[in-house]
């Protein structure tokens, strides 16, 4: 039964309570710093990586959404760990207010970081079966020698670096201005983790990636500052309540909420998610 701990705090403070090498995947939609919203302020990346590098387990991956200048800033913030970038192709474009001056925007980036090869379960697509026979020896300057191999497929296709998922409104109510779809989170979680692994989202917003983790049978730790959040200027939102309500509809999911409190309480919430039992 997956366990999800929700912690209301500054993530740079709360992550200090997470033990070394205990998180199998960090999956987060960080603030990009590209809107006028007060909550959309970039978290200091040097301090963020100090915690990420400490808590990531062997064979773990850090997977972060990004866009525009923030993508470049993020990739350069840890060049040693940056490995590649996925492109999330959306079902609906944005940037309509600038449609007469700029192209509409229909994708966001997903940056993948790790220090060594992580778990990787490619999410295969469908295609027609084929048999191309035996490929001959080849030697190229780019990739080296190819040994003879029988090239055939029963129909499965390996994924590319472009992944299509519908936007969040296709799944139900939208609670956050930059809410990501649960389906995108499930795809990424299946790719880089196994059932029972621990996922961290240190800026969980409305909780889409936490819901994805629970649906995929992963334990999760969610951290959210939960300050000055509005949806379409209709009043403030309590993102802890939003995430709790969304998680409640996930069957076989236990939730522990730790509102703003001393670091000892953060540790209790973290230990509960990691150990699978309530720590008193």
TrEMBL record:
EC annotation from Swiss-Prot or TrEMBL: 2.1.1.-
Enzyme class at the top of the EC tree: transferase
Gene3D superfamilies for this protein: Vaccinia Virus protein VP39
A GO molecular-function descriptor: site-specific DNA-methyltransferase (adenine-specific) activity
Keywords assigned: Methyltransferase, Transferase
InterPro entries recorded: DNA_methylase_N4/N6, RM_Methyltransferase, SAM-dependent_MTases_sf
Entry's transmembrane regions: none
Annotated ranges, domain DNA methylase N-4/N-6: 23-228
GO biological process, one term: methylation
Catalytic activity line of the entry: a 2'-deoxyadenosine in DNA + S-adenosyl-L-methionine = an N(6)-methyl-2'-deoxyadenosine in DNA + S-adenosyl-L-homocysteine + H(+)
Homology family: Belongs to the N(4)/N(6)-methyltransferase family.
Name of the protein in its database record: Methyltransferase
């Amino acid at each position: 039964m997956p366990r999800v701990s929700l912690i209301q705090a500054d993530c740079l403070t709360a992550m200090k309570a997470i033990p070394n090498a205990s998180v199998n995947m960090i999956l987060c939609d960080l603030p990009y710093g590209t809107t006028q919203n007060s909550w959309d302020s970039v978290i200091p990346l040097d301090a963020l990586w100090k915690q990420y590098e400490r808590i990531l387990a062997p064979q773990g991956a850090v997977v972060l959404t990004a866009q525009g200048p923030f993508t470049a800033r993020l990739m350069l913030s840890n060049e040693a760990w940056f490995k590649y970038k996925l492109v999330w192709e959306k079902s609906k474009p944005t940037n309509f207010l600038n449609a007469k001056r700029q192209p509409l925007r229909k994708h966001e980036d997903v940056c993948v970081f790790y220090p060594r090869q992580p778990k990787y379960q490619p999410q295969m697509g469908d295609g027609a079966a084929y048999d191309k026979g035996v490929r001959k020896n080849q030697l190229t300057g780019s990739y080296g020698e190819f040994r003879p191999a029988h090239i055939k497929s029963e129909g499965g296709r390996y994924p590319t670096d472009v992944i299509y998922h519908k936007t969040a409104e296709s799944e139900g109510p939208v609670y956050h201005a930059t809410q990501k779809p649960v389906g995108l989170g499930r795809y990424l979680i299946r790719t880089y983790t196994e059932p029972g692994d621990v996922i961290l989202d240190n800026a969980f917003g409305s909780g889409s990636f936490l819901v994805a983790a629970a649906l995929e049978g992963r334990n999760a730790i969610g951290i959210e500052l939960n300050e000055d959040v509005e949806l379409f200027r209709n009043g403030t939102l309590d993102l802890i309540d939003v995430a709790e309500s969304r998680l409640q509809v996930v069957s076989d999911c236990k939730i522990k909420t730790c509102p703003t409190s001393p670091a000892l309480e953060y540790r209790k919430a973290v230990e509960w998610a990691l150990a699978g039992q309530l720590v008193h």
